[in-house]
Amino acid sequence: MINRRIEEKIKSALQRSPSVALMGPRQIGKTTLAFSLADTLPSVYLDLEDRLDLEKVRDINLFHNENREKLIILDEIQRLPEIFAFLRGIIDKERRKGNKAGQFLFLGSASMDLLQQSSESLAGRITYIELYPIDLLEFATAEKNVSQTTTNTLWLRGGFPESLLAATERDSIDWRKDFIRTYLERDIPQLGPKIPAETLGRFWTMLAHNQGTPLNAAKIGKNLEVSGVTISRYLDLMVDLLLVRRLKPWTRNIGKRLVRSPKVYVRDSGMTHALLNIATINDLLGHPVVGGSWEGFVIENIMSVAPSSLEPYYYRTPGGAEMDLVLEFGLHEKWAIEIKRSSAPSVSKGFYIACEDVKATRKYVVYAGQDTFSMTKDVKAISLPALMQEVAAQA
Asked: 6-130 belongs to which CATH class?
């Protein structure tokens, strides 16, 4: 088992907030974390996909009265969204008795339902935390090294525990293909959207083929024989399910024409590779998507350690000024990040122009090596683990 740093964050949130929602795709490790917490806290766990457990909370007031001294953990909370309206009264009643924290832990596989149903009912009474796939710092700690082999294994297989820790590459990719099939055929239809599994599967695969490129909804829609508006609806769904990242362009008013279409990434690199039938590192290194795959992998690892309120951007002008990632820490701290898979990185003139445009205070080039060194007086080449540590220090 790989220790997840977010466990301490959840414990801290439960000490100050009456309810905490832990969000993330299925099989990402939410239930494992909940059981780990349950080992240290008086608690009761219910899986709302289990019919008996679902019946237990039909009368949530009665269930709470019987378990009011325990942390109540409700898994797959999106299966019973109407429960939030009742939980508000329970939480407020306990507050009046002096019990202000640590009453409920919700586990959900879709941010869409949790945010829409709970934000109004439990405003001021809930803390949201996203569980990312296992990242490079966590995996390196478990493996006791940050070698290129460790990095490549995580990049190829992705950070879903069952995939990452599989006995063989074949077991790993078979697990990911089963995961994709289950999402398309069972999980997404349960959330309500009436989208044919084959159509949504083709859309997901197209996003993988175009990993890290600005979205062209009209082109994808033409290939799928649906409208651009429908493609936007499909994308909204995949973003809400935390399976796809829509990276917005940095568009502050600087007096220049800017590329304004979002860049789109399948968030877990292992899922990208399974969608494209890439089973080995050699297959990956020879595939046209290798650059976009590495870029997405780096972005997700950086965001896994970033402050939860941080909004990432990219920057590009039609004239060629561009950078892969813009991070804003407060009003005056802007980090410009370029992502290179090469072990001997270099950057184009467009990166320096982009840095001037956004008035970057720090300039990094993330590359595949292990050392940190200055490329120019104000541009630093840095390894992914080292940059993750610098980002984490801002949290």
From this structure: alpha beta
Domain boundaries, the chain: 6-130, 136-392
Q: What is the pLDDT of residues 22-57, one digit of tens each?
A: 999 999 999 999 999 888 889 999 999 899 999 999
Count of CA atoms in the C-beta half-sphere (13 A) of 191: 21
**List of E strands, the chain:** 19-23, 43-47, 71-75, 104-108, 126-130, 213-214, 244-249, 263-266, 313-316, 322-329, 333-339, 362-367, 373-374, 380-383
Q: Is the pLDDT of residue 72 over 90?
A: yes
Rounded to 5 degrees, φ, ψ at 315 are -135, 135
**Neighbouring-strand partners of residue 374:** 380
Strand partners, 326: 313, 336
- Quote the CA–CA distance of 91 and 198 in Å, as a whole number: 43
